[in-house]
Amino acid sequence: MSALRIAGVRKRFGAQEVLKGIDLEVDSGEFLVLVGPSGCGKSTLLNIIAGLEAPGEGTVEIGSRLVNDVEPKDRDIAMVFQSYALYPTMTVRQNITFGMECRNVPKRAQDEAVERVSRLLQIDQLLHRKPSQLSGGQRQRVAMGRALVRDPTLFLFDEPLSNLDAKLRVEMRLEIKQLHRRIGATIVYVTHDQIEAMTMATRIAVMHQGEVQQFADPETIYNRPANLFVARFMGAPPMNCVSARVVSAGDGLAAVIGAGRPDAIQLPLSREAEAGAGAFKDRAVVLGIRPECIAEEDRRFGADERGSIAVEAPVEMTEPTGAETIVLMRLGGEQLLGRVSPDVRLPVGGNARFAVDARKLCLFDPATERLIA
Amino acid sequence: MLAPWLVHLVLWPPLLVSVVHIIGFTGYTTWISFTSSTLIPENDFVGLRNYNSVLASRNWTIATENLLIFGTGFVVLTTAIGLTLAVLLDQRIRAENVLRTIYLYPMAVSFVVTGTVWSWLLNPSIGIQKLVRGLGWEAFRFDWVVDRDMAIYTIVIAGAWQASGFAMALFLAGIRSVDADLYKAAQIDGAGPWRIYRRVVLPAIWPIFIAVMVILLQYTIKTFDLVRALTGGGPGIATQLPSLVVYDLMFQRGLLGRGSAAAVLMLLYLLAVLLPYFAFVQWRKRRNARHG
Ligand SMILES: Nc1ncnc2c1ncn2[C@@H]1O[C@H](COP(=O)(O)OP(=O)(O)OP(=O)(O)O)[C@@H](O)[C@H]1O
Ligand SMILES: [Mg+2]
Description:
Chain A is an alpha+beta fold. Helix content of chain A is 24%, strand content 35%. Chain A folds into 2 domains: 2-233, P-loop containing nucleotide triphosphate hydrolases (Rossmann fold, 3-Layer(aba) Sandwich), CATH 3.40.50; 240-364, CATH 2.40.50.140.
């Protein structure tokens, strides 16, 4: 069953068109993450779903019911804000019960609901405190509690973790994910953090300049980005995107970085990729390759060895992170990032040998920036 | 960058002048209040004699009673009107800027002008009473300004008329400073506009209530020109206020010692309002620092 369907939603503020025709459909129980850079219209879209903002055009359906003209309180939603928006003069308990109070829920049922969520979120010790007496993580939990007492069709989260420090963020990320699994709720979650998107979502909508660039599951978004924007936005460090040339090699096709140069590198395309790349034979393309597909020379990618190609390249800089070392190298005149095992010592300024995984190459049309293979 | 000597030149003279005027004259007045000075200052110490005679006078008793009535009425009425206007203006109406300016205008008018205008409006033979009677309600009476028991309330009305815009501006600024997400959260929680104001917005801006009330309260203690122009303290001494008593003693009757004693008493009233407020502000600062 579809929990949320958005069709042709547009919104403008004055002369600026903030949303340019958004279509999304989310099934019940899904965890949809809206991700995109700051100012791309994520919050605006979430506010439109919540009914806090009216769409200029288009329809919003929640639980198969058209809600364009339904008040926020009657949309059967709950929302967690980036600023948490806890009522500063109320205690934690009052913050949680305020919505039920407005809906005239009997006192007994209110107490039971508070009991239930405060135990779930481990805030039962904090119920009598004011928001100003809570830490960031505790406030975040209370904000979640306020949403959870409601048991709505749809949860809306607007960057709920962006005000937390890095460690707490990772913890809360796991907690939200577990919570989602436990209560099986449908969640629309806004973030500009692509790691949050990758780790939590069952499906991701990547937004940019008021448009959905790609709407797919995390794996597809990561491995088959629909265009250069998605390719560069998702993943840290980002995907290497360099100009290349499609040529024929043996009975198949290959992409050449730095064609015509003495240090040109030739990467064979997989059978699947050849289908799309055929039209670009002997033409320029943009080649996308994830940094983890360039590793130290003795690394083996997958079971069969055909995908693994040995190259030699000058090392320009290394960045040890502890778990791995990010290395900036030059291949065919282009700068690329690779990720090597931390115990490999690389000569900065000298040459080193690397293994390249050619199975997951992405090719983009340089004119339209769309994925071609 | 200014030259160092210029900095000193700019800084010190005004500071010196202020210190002499505020501390110096306050100290001098306090000293005079303990002397038997009449038309010209004397330097003989007479203890609390002036204070006793001021406190025992009917004039001062009535002035203090009036101050209580005026203070309470003025603060409550002005706060209520200011808050109502602020909430109404907060509804994102089209002419907000124009209305805000109109409401703030009385603030720019001096109290003497307010007093004079309201003395005309309230004068039964030329003002509101005459107007309403002229419209046909022959039995209409509105002669508070000449009524011993009601005259003080006319001062409340005129004062509230003048200061409401100011209170509104402060309240509106406070309401607007409330995080927009709180409104959204309350809307999703299902609270109507009335409940949002009552439970979320107004409680969040209670420090502004205190600030507004303290500012208004210290206004009332210092009020002089408004009463002077509106009722002149009359009828009789029905709208006497402490500041008028000071003026009367010092400049009408030439009793510098007693006038100074009354002035010092006024200062004490003022401190009774301001000191707790400053203590409160300090307390809040410290508490906020603790909670980050
Ligand atoms: N009420 C408004 N009036 C005018 N412009 C607005 C309004 N709200 C948002 N905008 C504009 O719409 C665009 C999208 O805003 P939105 O808040 O949806 O961005 P966002 O994707 O949530 O960004 P962030 O990650 O920074 O929260 C921005 O350019 C913003 O300036
Ligand atoms: Mg946002």
